Amino acid sequence: EASPENLHLRVWLIDLTIGQDKMEQAAALIEAAREIHGPHIMLDAAEIPLWGQRDQSEVLAKLSEIEQRLDEASKTEQVFVVIRLVDAYTRRERFDDAVRLRKRLAFEFAPTREVLLRLLTFSLANQDRVTAAQVSHRLNTLEGEDGVFAVYARLVVDLTAEQLSEETLLRARNELDDLLRRRPEVALFSLARAYLNERTGRLPEATADYMAAVERGAREPHVLRRLNYLLIAQSRFDDIDKLKSALADTSSRTAAY
């Protein structure tokens, strides 16, 4: 049956098959789905990971064509398609296109807390304070100015300024301490305090915050590299071994699941 529900189920199965690195089987599933649903944008987006060996100019033309057809899709489908496009542009080092679509995803298609926080992290990592400030404003509207993630966003934007007064640093520390009292499980808050502690020369405290963030699920390569560097700088080799064991255990359990 060519219903949207059946199409979404087929796309989920295609995604699962690609995740298992069964590319020929995934291609066959896409062709079978097209016989039922026709040339649907969801199937075109699902096919993008199979284009790894195609010519760059051909792929970029197809990505542009898919983006121009976004109005064909429902809101839910648009989110899936845009995420696929962002990933494809990033893999092909078309970072301006990836950033442009990250912004559309956060501000137009899926202005949720999770998507906004991802854009905030990405913007700050790329020193794009203008976009970070826009995200902070949107979170303020979404959560209310006293919401923990709205407070967090304002803080991290402020902390990226080149010059910070002692008053600003003290206020940021107090507010981060309060955020972690309110929501101790949020890794982002620990990472923000780690950054503040590093910036003010409190390396043992920064290390403790990085370790807390990792324990709470932070696995970004730059976080792990920074924690590893700080542990080496403090000759905490036993903690390095414990960190490696914990990460290996997490990876094996995730793979088994």
Overall mean confidence score, pLDDT: 90
Residues in helix, %: over 70%
Radius of gyration: 22 Å
Shape: globular
Q: How many beta strands in the DSSP annotation?
A: 0
Taking pLDDT < 50 over at least 5 consecutive residues as the criterion, the unreliable ranges are 251-257
Order of helices and strands: HHHHHHHHHHHHHH
The number of distinct helices, counting runs of at least 4 residues, comes to 14
- Termini Cα gap: 32 Å
**Major sheet description:** none
Can you give a write-up of this model?
The chain has 257 residues and is mostly helical. It is built from 14 helices and no strands. It has helices at residues 4-19, 23-37, 41-47, 56-68, 75-91, 95-109, 113-125, 129-143, 148-159, 166-182, 187-199, 203-215, 221-233, 237-256. Helix 7 packs parallel to helix 9 (148-159).
Characteristic key phrases:
mainly alpha; 14 helices; 77% helix; 257 residues; globular; 0% strand; disordered C terminus; single chain
Describe, in short, the structure shown.
The protein is mostly helical and 257 residues long. The chain contains 14 helices and no strands.
Topology:
Layout: H1 4-19, H2 23-37, H3 41-47, H4 56-68, H5 75-91, H6 95-109, H7 113-125, H8 129-143, H9 148-159, H10 166-182, H11 187-199, H12 203-215, H13 221-233, H14 237-256
Helix pairs in contact: 1-2, 3-5, 4-5, 5-6, 7-8, 7-9, 8-9, 9-10, 10-11, 11-12, 12-13
